[in-house]
Amino acid sequence: MIKDPLGNIIIILAGVKYPGNVGSVARAMNNMGLSQLRLAAPQCEINSESYRMARSGGKILECAKKYRSLKSALRGIHFVVGTSAKTGGRRAYSQSPRLLTPRVLAQAAAQKVGILFGPEDTGLIDDDLMLCQVLMRIPTHSRGRSMNLAQAVMVVCYELFLGSKSEERVRAPRLASSMQVEAMYEQLESALLDIGFLHPQNARHMMFAVRRLLGRAGLEAEDVGILRGIARQIAWSARSNYNKITAQDPDSRKSDETPDAAQHRSR
């Protein structure tokens, strides 16, 4: 457990486009006691405008780390919170910063937490959201849902700063790393395709729901190991049954196996 959980919270900007916004984000972070900034596949450079907007947050810019991809920017992070101004669909389960702050701070007391923000024009896309355990949305008036990137970061950091001053803390489990979790999801998706629970046409949609379900639970390393064992057994059982059927009647492959399953197995 660390004394200041804010030191374990990392602000991640995916595909940021404007140097001034990077500087303004650094200033907001500095105002609220956060110091770690990562840029995932940035579309701009940190320049003189960035430092001018950052003011006293210049040190954060100096220490900011750049990554070629979002997945690489998530290395070493165990709990990822995605932000989105959009509502409905897969984003219907988002929560406000105030509601999520206790959980974020509890997790940050033991492990690194990432708060992920998308590009200024599009925000986070579905591929980005798939890498997040929970989603966050800042409540706004219906006439003005879109916020400036730095303003959104300030609101989130403000809630985290206030929450860090509270004496009431929630105990959090030690979660598996994002890389461990992603490897598990890939194995689980493959196994579910093998048994026909998932089909290539809807696998992405269904896996998003699975990710949302397990993300809410919070997966520890032992949990990931159990789920990978289940996926491994599912895949073995599917192969075993398939081999038995084809050994008894080679033509049964055409009649018993669904076209989607056959397509997946042929890859």
What does it look like?
It contains twelve helices and six strands. The chain has a six-stranded parallel beta sheet with strand order 3-2-1-5-4-6. The model has no long low-confidence stretch (mean pLDDT 87). It has helices at residues 19-31, 48-54, 58-63, 70-73, 97-108, 126-129, 149-164, 178-194, 203-217, 221-248, 252-256, 259-266; strands spanning 9-14, 36-40, 65-67, 79-83, 113-117, 134-136. The N and C termini lie far apart (46 Å). It has two domains: 5-164, Alpha/beta knot; 178-266, no CATH class. The chain is of the alpha/beta class.
Compact description:
This protein is of the alpha/beta class and 267 residues long. Helix content is 51%, strand content 10%. The chain has helices at residues 19-31, 48-54, 58-63, 70-73, 97-108, 126-129, 149-164, 178-194, 203-217, 221-248, 252-256, 259-266, and strands at residues 9-14, 36-40, 65-67, 79-83, 113-117, 134-136.
